[in-house]
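Protein data sheet
==================
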Amino acid sequence: MNSTHKSNWIKDPSLIPLFFRSVDTLLLPTAAPPLHPHSDVVFHSLCSLEGKNKEAKKEKQVKKEVVHGKKKEVKKETGLGLSYKKDENFGEWYSEVVVTGEMIEYYDISGCYILRPWAMSIWEILQTFFDAEIKKMKIKNTYFPLFVSPAVLQKEKDHIEGFAPEVAWVTKSGESDLEVPIAIRPTSETVMYPYFSKWIRGHRDLPLRLNQWCNVVRWEFSNPTPFIRSREFLWQEGHTAFATKEEADAEVLDILELYRRIYEEFLAVPVSKGKKSELEKFAGGLYTTTVEAFIPNTGRGIQGATSHCLGQNFAKMFEINFENEKGEKAMVWQNSWGYTTRTIGVMIMTHGDDKGLVLPPKVATTQVIVIPVPYKDANTQGIYDACAATVKTLNESGIRAEADFRDNYSPGWKYSHWEMKGVPLRIEIGPKDLANNQVRAVRRDNVAKTDIPVANLAEQVKHVLDSIQQNLFETAKQKREACVQVVKTWDEFTEALNQKKLILAPWCDEEDVEKDVKTRTKGEMGAAKTLCSPFDQPELPEGTLCFASGKPAKKWTYWGRSY
């Protein structure tokens, strides 16, 4: 490009250092990093759910797989490519993509993972949204200790029986055994409620509405899976107390709606709002509401987040009483509710593809990556100036953008790298773009390419990002809806279960019948269970019978295998 060409680009060389990335800190290997030795646990956890248990081979090795009854040779890719395909080996694909996409790193304690900044930033975006919303509801943040005494933990029998197998205990200090072991919180009902009893005396002390952001530990299970089922995880847990059941019921639904928004509006994951069965509800609670997601590749439901009405059970156990407006002694009504870093895993499973992660723009810490594409004797400095100016323009418009100026990697390598990390939109700037005063934009979700004039760059990029967010949600919703199978008989139920469907069936709502379904479907793939009874109930014609018992049906309920 000659020096007389007129351009709208801001050409300020001083901008360039602001967008350079340190080669020392971001230099990546030319091959995908090897999985940690403990990753075999993760492989087995997801593969066993699909009836598979194959060992990972070394790279460049030819692997035989049976696909649709035929043997097929699959060469494992090297470099930035994934070794496994999502539709062919979902378990190993997931275990690989969370590492190669720089979401987690395996730790030397099974079931514990390092959340890398790429994942932590997603959690922080969700946290910022949710924290602001609950503060509008006059819910205040607090923090309670990690440790729980056995006496307090065991006070509520039904509750602790639900968690007892998962409780981790501290039994030693240095070389000495503790006189009384100390539990590490699996949840905080029994940690908080003795102090609710202390703080609540009269009706003017209500409602008491607290939330804490913390970690919890749940230990006793096999086959941990990053984000989905780990021994330590981050979450928020809300604990509230009210004078009336009506107030408690209203909050349960208000919080559940926030959880729906997290999944559908931020993570672009469709969910069903509904109520858990008596068998599946929170231990010690009155009832549990949930947002349930579904993973079409595995045919499994996954509990996204829950909002529980605890009733007065815990109030009775911990003597949380108050003097009401009539001067009478009464017990409070309580709720608890929470969502975890599982949200991130559900998002990865839903949107990821054979190139890596696919991040919805609303939760991507980098929404736009700008890559210079210099060519031979072209105006390289002008291209770098244009990239820097593009980032500045987008950032000033509230778009999270950065540029990759590393000179030890080719543009093609950078394309693959940022595709692996799931950045929603890539902007390329080469000599032709510079000459035409435009940029080339490439979407991560559908690989569509478009040229955007510099004059209205920010406006057009915002439009594209909104389109990506909506397309991810609509695509996931269509896939989910294609998996829903309505059944009315046991034979239809088992056939749909074997086809990995999300089953909607008329049910008599009896606990013994649910237990019987679990027993009759138990096998290598795991037993079927109720996922939730959706709030949005289809019409139930009079005389409809339960698919499992033949008794009169009371409601429509989602059934399936689950994580």
User: Anything to note?
Assistant: The CA atoms of residues 38 and 108 lie 7 Å apart. The chain has a mean pLDDT of 88. The chain is about 35% helix and 25% strand.
